[in-house]
Every structure is written in structure tokens, then in C-alpha cells.
Design brief:
With 199 residues, this protein is of the alpha/beta class. The protein has helices at residues 24-35, 87-98, 104-112, 116-140, 157-160, 162-165, 187-195, and strands at residues 18-21, 38-44, 50-57, 60-66, 145-147, 178-180. A hairpin with a 5-residue loop joins strand 2 (38-44) and strand 3 (50-57). The radius of gyration is 23 Å and the shape is elongated. The model has no long low-confidence stretch (mean pLDDT 89).
Length: 199
């Protein structure tokens, strides 16, 4: 006879709060000393961080984990979209995966030659770009999206990204064209110049 499935596990309530902390281990020690929390379990992550921990306080359970904010951005924040879907983002991702520092054109050339690490980096890049552009389409429903900057020089994105947009666009329909900038990867500078007042 099969066991019945419990929607709410024994010892848990309908809603279990999860806390994301800058230093989860210190937070857990604090909750133990001040609130009398009992640690149920802890899953360690990279660099001594905590991926997931469970504490019992009274008759309730809370989840605690460290924050994983993503790579540092030039703006001073972490995990900005620029750190993932730009030429420098591609270079940083390849470096994180391989330990080798290359420029974007070198990574593209290696992918064309069939290097697995370069192909994997471009696959990750395209997936992130697809997800980001899908949200842009969800919010603004543009007639077309023009790609500028170093990323616009990756030829395969114009074939590989559009077919996957529907996986992330609301309603699973997307026919928004993804186009390279007509005047090259520095087209944004030209556009800014046109906005400069003549007087």
C-alpha cells in the first residue's frame, strides 16, 4: 500500500520563512544564543558559505542561507546584467570556468574551432541573453531588439537566441527580431552624439 504524500512535512507549518544573510554561520550562532534556536541541519557551500540550513525555534522551523550575490560589477554592485551578457561578461565567465584569460574575439574563434570550453561559455552566454531579452519583451513588447557593444559581434546569437525566446516569454510566443546594430558595436555612441544639443 503506497504511503500518503504529505503536502506539509511533519514538524513544519504551512509557511516556512527563509532568511538570506551576509554571514549565515554568524546569524545561526546568534539565533542559537539569543533565541534558543536548535540547528536541525546544515548544507555547506563553496568558500565556507552555507547553501541551506534549518533551525527550530519553539515549534517553528526557519531556513537560513548565505547570499550568493554574483560577480562584482563596475558600478559597485553585484550580479548586474552587465556582468553576464556583455563582451566582458563572456570573458569573465570563460576565465571562471577555465582559469584562462582571453578576449571575446579569441573565445569566439576557439568556439569556431570546436573548443569545448569556449562552446560551453557561449552556450551559457546565449541562455542568459535569451532570459534577459525575454523579460524585456514581457515588459515592453518592442518591435525589434538591436544589440550593441561587444556582444553584438557574436554572430551565432542572431541564429540561436530567437528560437528560444518563447521558452521564457509570457504566452510562449515570441517573434521579436534580434538584430545587430547597423553602424557597428559603437552605435550607442553615435546615438548619444545625436542627442547632444547643437546650441
Amino acid at each position: 500500500m503506497p504511503h500518503p504524500v504529505r503536502a506539509i512535512p511533519e514538524g513544519y507549518h504551512s509557511i516556512t520563512p527563509g532568511l538570506t544573510c551576509k554571514e549565515a554561520a554568524r546569524a545561526i550562532d546568534y539565533y542559537k544564543s539569543v533565541l534558543g534556536a536548535a540547528e536541525i541541519m546544515r548544507m555547506p557551500g563553496p568558500e565556507g558559505k552555507i547553501m541551506h540550513a534549518e533551525l527550530r525555534i519553539g515549534d517553528s522551523v526557519i531556513f537560513v542561507s548565505d547570499e550568493f550575490p554574483g560577480p562584482a560589477c563596475y558600478c559597485g554592485r553585484n550580479g548586474c546584467i552587465e556582468t553576464w551578457i556583455s563582451g566582458t561578461g563572456l570573458e569573465a565567465d570563460y576565465h571562471r570556468a577555465t582559469g584562462v584569460q582571453l578576449k571575446g574575439p579569441e573565445i569566439i574563434a576557439r568556439s569556431s574551432a570546436g573548443e569545448k570550453a569556449a562552446l560551453a561559455a557561449l552556450d551559457r552566454f546565449e541562455d542568459r541573453l535569451t532570459r534577459a531579452l525575454a523579460q524585456l519583451i514581457n515588459l515592453l513588447d518592442p518591435d525589434a531588439i538591436v544589440v550593441g557593444g561587444g556582444a553584438s559581434q557574436i554572430p551565432r546569437i542572431y541564429q540561436n537566441v530567437p528560437p528560444h525566446l518563447k521558452e521564457y516569454v509570457f504566452g510562449q510566443e515570441a517573434d521579436t527580431p534580434i538584430l545587430p546594430a547597423k553602424h557597428g558595436d559603437a552605435s550607442g555612441v553615435r546615438g548619444a552624439a545625436w542627442l547632444w544639443p547643437l546650441k
